[in-house]
Amino acid sequence: MTLSLRQIPRPLLLGGLLIGASLVLAVFPATFAPYDPVAMDYNALMHAPSWAHPMGTDNFGRDVLSRVIHAYTIDMQIAFFGTIFSFSFGIVIGALVGYAGGLADTIFGRIVDAVITFPFLVLVIAIVSVLGPGLVNMYVALAVVGWVFYARIIAAEVKVQKRLDYADAGRAMGYTPMRVIFRHLLPNAITPAIVYLVTDMALAILLGSSLGYLGLGAQPPTAEWGVQIADGKNFMTTGWWISVFPGVAIVLTGLGFSLIGDGLAEVLRTRK
Amino acid sequence: MTPALQVRHLSTTFGHHGTPVTAVDDISFDVMPGEVLGLVGESGSGKSVTLRSIMRLMPHHSAVTGSVLWQGCDLMTMTEAELRRVRGGEISMIFQEPGTALNPVLPVRVQIEENLRAHTELSAAGRAARCLELMDLVGIPDAKRRLTQYPHQFSGGMRQRVMIAIALASNPKLLLADEPTTALDVTIQDQILKLILDLRDELAMSVVFVTHDLGVVAATCDRMAVMYAGRIVESGPVPAVFAQPNHAYTRGLLGSVPRSGTERSPLLSIEGTPPGLTSRPAGCAFHPRCAFATDLCRRESPALQDRAAGQAAACFHSDRVIAAGLAGS
């Protein structure tokens, strides 16, 4: 069961390092950030990267590096809260639907069709615009749309698992359907959903940044990468660093989650 | 003595694209307390479906009719809650593939304890003690360590022992065994059979043994029922049936197995293959493969009739079958 360090796939190791570092920055931003993320310095407007400001300053004289570091707190939160509700809700619905089959499965299939017909981002934006902008409403919107994907994965897997003898054995032992579903089938079906969860965290960060950019997620002056990129978009020719460094942070974090997802899939596949 | 289990007119049909097909066709049998009944037949004869129908484990798109009386209660009309008390508590079941019948992601201890939790009032300490006791009972050494392991860390025979330990956790009065040794090596097979028989004596339970292996039947069963195309074609005490089959199919089955102590003779084989679920012939389902078949067999389906020596057979020509005797004897 235990893997030695050498057996850990490269992607998992690299992804783990990236996300580990991100988590440290997210939990202790003040320790690493050289300046206050919202403090404006009118003597240093739009300074190019220098020793004093490694990532330069923006049009209000705020230190870009400090803002990028403080944004980790928000964006890692988005990665977590943007996925965990979809995941929890999705696996429960998926397990129930997969086990019940029949009419429940047909209805569920239509719901899935209805959701995946719309582009994901459009649907989320529609919901956020109804609920009003802000992080909490963004989490709500992500959960409302996202659970379908987890439910679909789990339902398919449970449909396979419930035909195996151990499911029948569980029923033959007189266990309740709920017990068979959540104690026996779900743990056996959950692997692909966990792999998807990690990949989905990367997507959540991208989406959170996109919504931040569009003004529907985190609100200025909060330091959030999407917001920062939006702040810098008018200065692309004169102050590229305002947008580019938050963009790099997005790429690195997204890459980290994707690598973990890939590595995890590899480990779990070989174990089977 | 009253039977522990009485199966009466049990039929199981599947909806098959509109036309229902019958997998189990009006079968009745008794299991006495402490008795081992062998349910014998080729693949597709409906043996496993019979067991699963008794436990009401069939999928929703199948229809089961008839009655299964267990200690005076009909399992077929019980509520789900009542049924759950019987399943695993009073009647347990073990499966052909111990590898797939155990949950791969839970340690063995959790899986045994789960049954105890569902059917007994034991405390946590009581359950832990009972787990160790069960591991000893089914002959798994080093029980304490083995309990923490996962099914994939056990060999095939050991897995079947674990399965038996789970099934026996709450002292059932009836064990339904669905080809429990088919997936195992011959040497291991023997150990498992012996274990089941020992446990039968020790726990005074009845066993219904589904198998296609006549050797297993001869070694373990008190009585046997031979199934063909979803019906019981012959039943009776094992020695009597082996000595003098009353049905042409049983004769063919027994003739196809080598026997020691008799003159060397070519083995019989039954020509053809069993009919599929959707293409059951009219009359006696065995007639296309039967050397004794007459027009009567092609027209009418024979009912199971009592014969001598506690045997019963569903054959119009039992007398001719008996007269033909077993090949080579």
Describe this structure in words.
The complex is a heterodimer of chains A (272) and B (329). With 272 residues, chain A is mainly α. Chain A is built from 11 helices and no strands. Chain A has helices at residues 10-27, 29-32, 64-100, 102-117, 120-131, 135-161, 165-172, 177-189, 191-213, 225-232, 241-271. The longest helix of chain A is centred in the first third of the chain and has 37 residues, at 64-100. Chain A is elongated, with a radius of gyration of 22 Å. By secondary structure, chain B is of the alpha/beta class. Chain B has 2 domains: 5-221, P-loop containing nucleotide triphosphate hydrolases (Rossmann fold, 3-Layer(aba) Sandwich), CATH 3.40.50.300; 250-324, no CATH class. Helix content of chain B is 34%, strand content 22%. The longest helix of chain B is centred in the middle third of the chain and has 18 residues, at 186-203. Chain B is globular, with a radius of gyration of 21 Å. The chains are: A mainly alpha (272), B alpha/beta (329). The A-B interface holds A 101-102, 164-166, 168-176, 179, 183-184, 187-188 and B 52, 55, 57, 60, 83-89, 92-93, 95-97, 100-106, 114-115, 118-119, 163, 166-167, 176.
